[in-house]
Amino acid sequence: MSYYDTDIKFVKGIGEKRAQLFKKRLGLFTLQDLISHYPRTYEDWSNPTRIEDVPYNEYVCVKAKISSDIQKKITRNKKIETYQFYIYDRTGQIRVTIFNNKYFAESLKKEEEYLFYGKIKWSGTFRDMASPEIRSVSECKIRPIYPATDGLTSRQIEKIMAGVLENFTISEYLPENIIKQFNLISHPEAVKQVHFPESKTKIEQARKRLAFEELLLLRLGLTGLKNRTRNKNSRKITPLTDDEIFKLFP
Prior knowledge:
The protein is of the alpha+beta class. It has helices at about 15-25, 30-35, 100-105, 155-165, 175-180, 185-195, 200-235, 240-245, and strands spanning about 40-45, 60-65, 70-75, 80-90, 90-100, 115-125, 125-130, 135, 140-145.
């Protein structure tokens, strides 16, 4: 049995309980199924936008420093805690609001630089960003967004996938002459780049290779089916003797 057939519950970061979510909700049963669970889209954190250039009511990534202390506020019914602070770069500032996340809000440090990903809106004279995703500047890259489900987020799948690609060897199975003839990247590189692309160009190269594989397998499958059908329906013809031929006529 190939390691590609490994039950998904044995993959690091999954386990028995989480494996049931992969199997029942996403239809993923083996390591091969997981590797073939490609992102549905991407978030581009690789090229942060200057604050003065941010589009409004669209998702955008901003690299900025926290300029103020984090102010805690509680609503009248005491069910919602908000944490508000300001961030800035050389071109402007934004007011950021975090909801019901005390531990994370208190982990942020004044004058520290972070990546903020979210939508910008006007609130009076302020640019506002509510509930952004906040990451270290070391994560300035294109990030995969996976088909997910209740109890299993895209970020969790991303972390698991990173471990899989780090610990398992992806094999090549196309001949070198085919790869060169159709100007394809290798299968291992395509899998790596479709999950964790270095650039938008790499995404397109990975998609081209994976699409080629699907069409090739479809073609081979149809050819095999056609050959099996031909062999099944064909009749063996044996030559007749003269006497047997004459008996067929009155």
